[in-house]
Design a protein that fits this description.
alpha/beta, 7-stranded parallel β-sheet
């Protein structure tokens, strides 16, 4: 009987999802302002202070279901306002009640530290008129400071999966009081290997919780989790899965290097060439690399050529990463080189360009990368550099997008001046060595220096006397002290101390007396 009921519910669930998608589309048409969403007046006041009046389609579709207490599965491309889709209803529902020590009332899971910090900023904006306590649990921050916040009791707990489980295993946190649980960027959790941690966290929370699931793409593994841990979720899909924003102009720059050894240099030259060609159109840009090593190399290359550039990736200190991000948001830094750690969820609205220095290995990452530009209806440009061996990854991206990306065929640029100078410097020592070799003299002829020494022996002796005694007798010479040798070290001690030296003198005087007699 139980098995029959499970089969029936699984059969009915797709119909509910389809109906929810239709209702969401209809609601999005008629709800044109935030005042139509029945939000708390304090929340509406905070929204007005930010300057928002009209909700995005995902917000208009998801917020009504979230306010009703239903589980929501939201699918929308990046830059459409998914964060506010769960932030606003959470603040509305948590405005009543009070948290207990070590037992948060709500939980928001994010894949990266930067995304978690951004969600925390949104909560500070929308909950400033509501007395809600918030804690941010991310790596790179002291456990003691985070423990103090948890001990006081928090209404909203925003965390990455790893740091959350660290606090739980240390006995500093209980998840039995969770009323609302949010998983943001669920497909990114899958890519980063957080799915086992997510499943464990779900099992630690009460089954009566409300769950909000948001992502840009839906992989089969994500579908399995939603079927297991969500209760009849309302599927809200405002755009086709895996689609890029129409406001983004996409281009692929295909080129070939002379050989594989110089591909990396040719790629960096091509990147600088495109940046220079964009001119005033480029106000700021994010450059994505597949590997952390490439991030550091591209950073050094752009700095060497005078660009205003910073970098973030997972191995850098959290404080440094936040300083770089703040500098980029404040336009103190023009170019930001990053790994995929920054491709998800970062809300930097005025990014004009995105450069894919490497074609992403995972096709879904392409959508999240270019989603950093063209946000909130603005226009954006995205360039992807593609070498011949990267075309296989590009084919997967186009298969996901179900369309071809316009190509820009070009040749690898000539070496820059900075490189030619370094090459010339490397060639100069070799030229000096070749010039320094003396031409061999004939066997019959002697070198001029040897002839002068043999012709003027007196002049040579005079130079030795003027030199301060360096060549004055080999017996008294002290090696290693140079020309300035103390006089007492040049005395011949053996001639004064040895008694044998007096015998020849006595014999000589004796022979002189005999001769005189």
């Amino acid at each position: 009987m139980v098995a029959h009921m499970n089969d029936s519910t699984s059969a009915v669930r797709p119909r509910l999802n389809i109906a929810a998608s239709i209702n969401a589309a209809n609601n999005a048409r008629y709800m044109t302002k935030f005042t139509d969403l029945d939000l708390n007046p304090k929340v509406l006041k905070a929204v007005n202070d930010v300057g928002y009046e009209t909700p995005t389609p995902i917000q208009a579709a998801a917020i009504p279901f979230a306010l009703q207490g239903r589980d929501v599965l939201g699918i929308a491309q990046t830059g459409t306002g998914k964060t506010a889709s769960f932030t606003l209803p959470m603040v509305h529902k948590l405005a009543r009640g009070r948290a207990r020590a070590r037992m948060p009332r709500s939980l928001v899971l994010c894949p990266t530290r930067e995304l978690a910090a951004q969600v925390a900023e949104n909560f500070e904006l929308y909950a400033k008129y509501c007395k809600l306590d918030m804690a941010l649990l991310i790596g790179g921050v002291s456990f003691k400071d985070q423990d103090k916040l948890i001990d006081r009791g928090v209404d909203v707990l925003i965390a990455t999966p790893g740091r959350l489980l660290d606090h739980f295993e240390r006995g500093k946190l209980l998840l039995t009081g969770i009323e609302i649980m949010v998983v943001d960027e669920a497909d990114r959790m899958l890519d980063m290997g957080f799915i086992p941690d997510i499943e464990r966290i779900f099992k630690l929370t009460p089954f009566t919780r409300q769950t909000l699931f948001f992502s840009a793409t839906m992989a089969p593994e994500i579908t399995r989790i939603t079927q297991e841990f969500l209760s009849n979720p309302e599927r809200v899909e405002v755009a086709r899965q895996a689609t890029a924003s129409e406001t983004i102009e996409q281009k692929v720059v295909c080129f070939k290097a002379p050989n594989r050894k110089v591909e990396a240099k040719a790629k960096r030259d091509m990147l600088r060439k495109i940046i220079a060609d964009e001119g005033d159109k480029l106000t700021n840009a994010i450059i994505f690399c597949n590997r952390k090593v490439e991030v550091d190399i591209v950073l050094k290359s752009l700095k060497k050529h005078g660009a205003s550039v910073g970098a973030i990736h997972g191995d850098l200190d959290q404080r440094y990463r936040m300083e770089v991000l703040n500098g980029f948001k404040n336009n103190d830094i023009t170019l930001l080189v990053a790994s995929d750690v920054a491709a998800r969820g970062l809300d930097i609205p005025n990014v004009s360009h995105v450069f894919n220095y490497d074609v992403p290995i995972h096709a879904e990452d392409y959508i999240h990368r270019i989603g950093r530009t063209g946000r909130a209806g603005r226009e954006g440009r995205a360039f992807t550099l593609c070498l011949p061996h990267e075309e296989k990854h590009l084919d997967k991206v186009e298969e996901l997008l179900k369309g071809k990306i316009p190509r820009v065929e070009t040749e690898a640029p000539a070496p820059t001046k900075a490189r030619s100078k370094s090459e010339s410097k490397s060639k100069k020592p070799a030229a000096a060595k070749t010039d320094a070799k003396p031409t061999p003299a004939p066997k019959d002829e002697k070198p001029k220096a040897v002839e002068e020494k043999q012709a003027n022996p007196k002049a040579r002796n005079q130079r030795q006397q003027k030199s301060g005694g360096r060549q004055q007798g080999n017996k008294n010479r002290v090696v290693g002290l140079g020309d300035h040798v103390p006089a007492f070290m040049l005395r011949d001690i053996r001639t004064t101390a040895a008694p044998k030296t007096e015998e020849p003198v006595a014999k000589e005087t004796k022979s002189d007396d005999e001769n005189a007699a």
